[in-house]
Design goal:
binds adenosine-5'-[phenylalaninyl-phosphate], 2 domains, BirA Bifunctional Protein, domain 2, 7-stranded mixed sheet, 3-stranded antiparallel sheet, alpha+beta, about 350 residues, 11 helices, elongated
């Protein structure tokens, strides 16, 4: 190709390119023009560049220089057109924004009422000097029953009253033991005393499992708060004071608490803790002075230490606090209910 011919074509392309780029009305048509002119594979500039090869070698430097100038000019025109159209889009969307329109409120979740209650109970007992201990939900019979002075013949160990798991060998060489989903948080009393010398002052909050039929005050999975205080010269008066203080902290000064004589194998004497609700009483939990047999099971000397323990139902406490008449509501996961807390 002769140099003259090449330069005429180059000037023509530069003029028409600048014109089309300046005329582009929106980002999409600009992109189409860009591909037509500057496309890496079949753009018009690329096609012209191929013509350079046919130019006489003495004239090639001039042709190459002019080609580069033309290319820069087209690229600059493209950059200017792009800036113009992007700015126009930004202005358009700013014009479409009405700051006086009500916004879309994001839907925020929150902690489940039982989790909130657990946190609050921990806070109250922390103020009374109790630290928090934890224990596993799958337990062996020693922690759930034996060390708690619950004899093998006791009805609380009946397979129909517990969720026993398959009998498993604990670990190589250890005795065989039956495992179950713990039926009470009193297991943590044993775990803590096994590990810690007296004095002890803990609460433990968590899930427990019983094959109870679900009704307004029962559920097969529920939560308990366990308390254990062991020291010297601890009396039933201390137990009653701590529980009364806790109840008025959580439920208000006007709450009416009643201690009713009862029996638990791991406390002696034992009481049921009831609270007045609506026209009657609701049982919140059990409590009592730690039985000497329990101290012996964990290697404490019952001649030297005394202590009290209690276990309260978290669902019932929370229900009493908010006036909820059926604890099954906690587990239906109906957000219309849960959003109220
Ligand atoms: C016990 O579980 C004893 N471990 C409590 C205890 C601890 C006594 C330490 C002495 C010393 P009880 O089975 O009564 O006791 O259960 C305690 C509380 O758990 C009940 O009062 C009730 O508030 C709650 N509870 C029991 N069963 C259910 C259930 N199926 N659903 C919801 N809450 C329940």
């Amino acid at each position: 190709m002769a140099l003259d011919e090449f330069l005429v074509e180059l000037d023509g392309l530069t003029d028409s390119a600048t014109e089309s780029l300046n005329a582009a009305l929106d980002v999409d048509s600009l992109e189409a023009v860009r591909i037509d002119l500057l496309g890496a594979k079949s753009g018009r500039l690329k096609a012209l560049q191929k013509g350079l090869a046919a130019i006489d070698s003495a004239e090639k430097p001039v042709a190459g220089k002019r080609f580069n100038e033309a290319k820069q000019k087209i690229e600059a025109a493209y950059a200017a057109a792009k800036e113009r159209l992007t700015f126009a889009v930004a202005q358009q969307s700013a014009a479409g924004f009405d700051p006086t329109e009500p916004g879309c409120k994001p839907i925020l979740g929150h902690l489940h009422p039982i989790t909130q209650t657990i946190e609050e109970l921990k806070d109250i007992f922390a103020r009374l000097g109790f630290s928090v201990a934890d224990g596993p939900e799958i337990e062996d019979e020693r922690h759930n029953f034996e060390a708690l002075n619950i004899a093998r013949s006791h009805p609380a160990r009946d397979p129909l009253d517990n969720f026993y798991l398959q009998t498993a060998t604990k670990s190589a060489g250890a005795e065989r033991s039956e495992w179950l989903l713990r039926s009470q948080t009193s297991t943590v009393q044993i775990r803590v005393m096994d590990e810690t010398p007296p004095p002890v002052r803990i609460v433990s909050l968590g899930r427990v499992y019983r094959p109870d039929t679900a009704d307004a005050t029962h559920y097969p999975m529920f939560h308990q708060i366990e308390g254990l205080l062991v020291d010297t010269d601890v009396t039933m008066a201390d137990l009653k004071s701590v529980l009364r203080m806790f109840c008025s902290s959580y439920l208000g000064e006007d709450v009416h608490v009643r201690f009713r004589p009862s029996f638990f194998p791991f406390t002696e004497p034992s009481v049921e803790v009831d609270m007045r609700w609506q026209d009657g009483w609701i049982e919140m939990g059990g409590a009592g002075m730690v039985d000497p047999n329990v101290f012996e099971a964990v290697g404490y000397d019952p001649e030297k230490v005394t202590g009290f323990a209690f276990g309260l139902g978290v669902e019932r406490l929370c229900a009493r606090r908010y006036g909820i008449t059926d604890i099954r509501e906690f587990f239906k996961n109906d957000v219309r209910f849960l959003h109220q807390f």
